[in-house]
Q: What sequence folds into this?
RNA sequence: GGAGGGAUUCCCGAGCUGGCCAAAGGGGGCAGACUGUAAAUCUGCUGGCGAUGCCUUCGGAGGUUCGAAUCCUCCUCCCUCCA
């Protein structure tokens, strides 16, 4: 997307889209104004700690914001927190994070960047490792840095205060995390720092450090925390309520269709580019019943798959979704299970055992239960007898529930 | 160092005056109905075994008993209080 000719107000509105808080907004306006006069782009910083390999939509929201700023002509700086990752961000945590070794961190970095550069333009993004400066610091420097923070200030934070109150461990190394993140902003002289609202404290520390170093303080642009597929908890891998960037188009489409109607608009705002005024119209039409929630969600699913895969993949995923869920047909790509003579007894196989063999049940007992509940079909026919010994036919489709399939073939 | 409290099936959490305990309840997951979708709601299932029975499970190892998640001994880990 080329740099567009926008008014200051328009640019500000774009930047504010999908944010929970911009602080201080007035200063952002000033910076943007100055940027227009001097033609010097603003430095927008996003720090990521490569603690895990797989990213999901929740992780990517600030990255999308960075991309937007990049498209607006500002300088996108991605800070890989190879040093901060070894400490582990305590934000919002009720226990100490495991400390990673430098090797683990560097390994995660690669997969991290692969995923992030699906969004950001690699040619226009500056990538820096915060080890560049932290590895060179002396103990003296560290003491200096630590003198910028007081215990009282740290304990203003709810997460730390809670842990302290509840006599949970609170290691000293966690205390310097915000200082490290803040120092990153000093090191690159950031104008803007992006992050989830849970990063607010750390971003404010960055501002303070910049001020004491006589630098212009950065602006914080924070997005709300994305609610996961369950509609309750924040999106996270451990809760399993996530849409992963590496999910296949069909999976991504289906998962999007499974979010609740109430959550739809949040997703639209945070992870698509659909213009705000269009979203407002949609919201109104949903309310009056002019627009069907399912239609709106289909649109959302297409946008999301389109963004992380491709437009074509989105259309294909939608077509498949319709085939499977509307017309109850079999999807294109389903796992194949080959039966050999060893699997058969007198030319037959017990249906429950077949389900296990096909990976559709974890035990014969579970297979039996699925059948008793009417959840199993062979070539579209419901299996009613859990004791059925089935004589296999080549190229048969076995189905459990609405969306799990396997094709049976004979060796 | 001393005094207490705890560890239960995927998770949380009852049970712990020994049999009725494969173990309440909730969450999650899965299936069914309905539908507007893998929304919402409602219902059912949720250790293993070709199974009205058998096997393994209640932190670990022993023991008491016809019988132990429940009682005893030792051990490991976690928490609280005192110093």
A:
């Amino acid at each position: 997307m080329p740099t567009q000719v926008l008014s200051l107000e328009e640019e500000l509105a774009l930047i504010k889209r999908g944010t929970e808080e911009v602080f201080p907004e007035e200063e952002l306006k000033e910076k943007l104004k100055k940027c227009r006069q001097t033609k010097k782009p603003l430095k927008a910083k996003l720090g990521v700690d490569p603690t895990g390999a797989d990213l999901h939509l929740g992780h990517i929201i600030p990255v999308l914001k960075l991309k937007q700023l990049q498209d607006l002509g500002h300088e996108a700086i991605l800070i890989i927190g190879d040093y901060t990752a070894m400490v582990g961000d305590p934000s919002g945590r009720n226990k100490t994070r495991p400390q990673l070794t430098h090797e683990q961190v560097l390994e995660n970095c690669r997969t991290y960047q692969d995923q992030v550069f699906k969004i950001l333009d690699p040619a226009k993004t500056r990538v820096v490792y915060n080890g560049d400066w932290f590895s060179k610091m002396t103990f003296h420097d560290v003491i200096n840095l630590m003198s910028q923070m007081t215990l009282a200030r740290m304990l203003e934070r709810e997460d730390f205060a809670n842990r302290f109150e509840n006599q949970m461990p609170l290691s000293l190394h966690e205390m310097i995390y915000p200082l490290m993140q803040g120092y990153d902003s000093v090191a690159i002289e950031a104008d803007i720092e992006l992050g989830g609202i849970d990063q607010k404290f750390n971003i404010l520390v960055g501002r303070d450090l910049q001020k004491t170093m006589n630098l212009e303080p950065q602006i914080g642009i924070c997005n709300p925390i994305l609610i996961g597929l369950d509609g309750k908890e924040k999106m996270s891998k451990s809760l399993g309520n996530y849409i992963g960037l590496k999910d296949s188009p069909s999976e991504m489409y289906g998962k999007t269709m499974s979010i609740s109607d109430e959550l739809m608009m949040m997703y639209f705002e945070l992870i698509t580019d659909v213009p705000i005024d269009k979203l407002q119209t949609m919201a109104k039409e949903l309310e009056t019943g002019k627009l069907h929630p399912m239609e709106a969600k289909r649109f959302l699913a297409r946008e999301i798959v389109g963004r992380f895969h491709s437009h074509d993949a989105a259309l294909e995923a939608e077509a498949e979704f319709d085939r499977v869920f509307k017309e109850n047909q079999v999807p294109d790509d389903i796992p194949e299970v080959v039966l050999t003579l060893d699997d058969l007894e007198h030319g037959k196989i017990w249906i429950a055992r077949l389900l296990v063999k096909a990976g559709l049940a974890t035990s014969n007992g579970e297979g039996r239960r699925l059948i008793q509940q009417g959840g199993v079909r062979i070539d579209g026919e419901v299996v009613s007898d859990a004791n059925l010994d089935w004589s296999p036919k080549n190229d048969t489709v076995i189905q459990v529930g609405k969306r799990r399939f396997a094709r049976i073939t004979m060796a």
